[in-house]
Amino acid sequence: QVQLVESGGGLVQAGDSLRLSCAPSGLTFSLYGMGWFRQAPGKERDFVAAISRSGGNTTYADSVKGRFTISRDNAKNTVYLQMNSLKPEDTAVYYCGAAFNRLGVGTSLINFWGPGTQVTVSS
């Protein structure tokens, strides 16, 4: 059974940093591109960042470029999202997604989802 578990969310102030982690189990991690998405109340789930199977290719939403960094450690079966200079508009539930053999840049490409972790940024 495939499970993705996000961790690292919390309540921070504007300008602070957080690092999210996602550790999938039940799948061969190196075969999956990984993505981070977020969903604010009343809004759709939006793409944040994605990383290729090897980690050599990354892409970001314009709203987080220069502030967020996605990375992965295939030896630890973990993908990370380093979030710096957080803004109130970054407040959302953040989801980790696994996309088989592709870069997971869209929700339709994701095969497996985690339950999400709440990030709240106060002004």
What would you note in describing this structure?
The chain is globular, with a radius of gyration of 13 Å. The chain is mostly beta strands and 123 residues long. Strands 2, 4, 5, 6, 9, 10 and 11 form a 7-stranded mixed β-sheet that branches. A 4-stranded antiparallel β-sheet has the order 1-3-8-7, with no helix packed on it. The chain is built from no helices and 11 strands. It has strands at 6-7, 10-13, 18-22, 32-39, 46-51, 58-60, 68-73, 78-83, 92-100, 112-113, 117-122. Helix content is 0%, strand content 46%.
Provide a count of the helices: 0
Spans of at least 5 consecutive residues with low confidence: none
Rough outline: globular
Please count the beta strands (DSSP E, at least 2 residues each): 11
User: Into which percent range does the helicity of residues fall?
Assistant: under 10%
CA(first)-CA(last) distance: 40 Å
Task: Please state the CA-atom Rg, rounded to the nearest Å.
Answer: 13 Å
Structural class: mainly beta
Average pLDDT score: 96
